[in-house]
Amino acid sequence: MPANSQHSQRPAKLLAGLLVTGGILHFVVPKPYDSLIPKQLPGSARAWTYGSGVAEIAVGAAVAAPRTRRRGALAAALLFLGVFPGNVKMALDAQRRRAPLPFRVVAWLRLPLQFPLVTWALKVRDRA
User: Most buried of 10, 19, 34, 99, CB within 10 angstroms?
Assistant: First the structure.
């Protein structure tokens, strides 16, 4: 594979790695993810945590494979949009609990981070 082609795949490979790593973390340290799950959803928070971990790993695998990259990257953009309410909940909960200031700052800074992630995923889709 020419060096230029390898370089053009780097954003897709990094996105896939981010998604798979994030998905694995849902199983390794599930408790922080459990707190993001709205109580209105049926079933246990842990089941939703594990299910979303599986979804992240699957989407990451789809982005990693050139044949499924276009659809996988679109799924990644939708996934990033889908978890946004959980990130809002985390920021509001941190504020209500009067969590330590660094935690509250990080919780609020995560919110605008979702938009570059969506943009990144859509660029990977467009280049697939």
Answer: 19
Q: How far apart are CA 8 and CA 87, in angstroms?
A: 31
Instruction: Note the pLDDT tens digit of each residue in 32-56.
Output: 889 888 888 899 999 999 999 999 9
Q: What is the pTM of this model?
A: 0.85
Tokens encoding 118 = 């969506």
Show the CA angle centred on residue 51, arms to residues 109 and 63, nearest 5°.
70
Contact status, residue 60 vs residue 19, Cβ threshold 8 Å: yes
Q: How far is CA 47 from CA 25, 31, 41, 44, 82, in A?
A: 14, 11, 11, 5, 17
C-alpha to C-alpha distances, 92 to 21, 88, 97, 111, nearest whole angstrom: 26, 6, 9, 11
User: Is 114 within 8 Å of 84 (Cβ atoms)?
Assistant: yes
Place of tokens 């330590």: 100
The reported pLDDT for the residue numbered 23 is 97
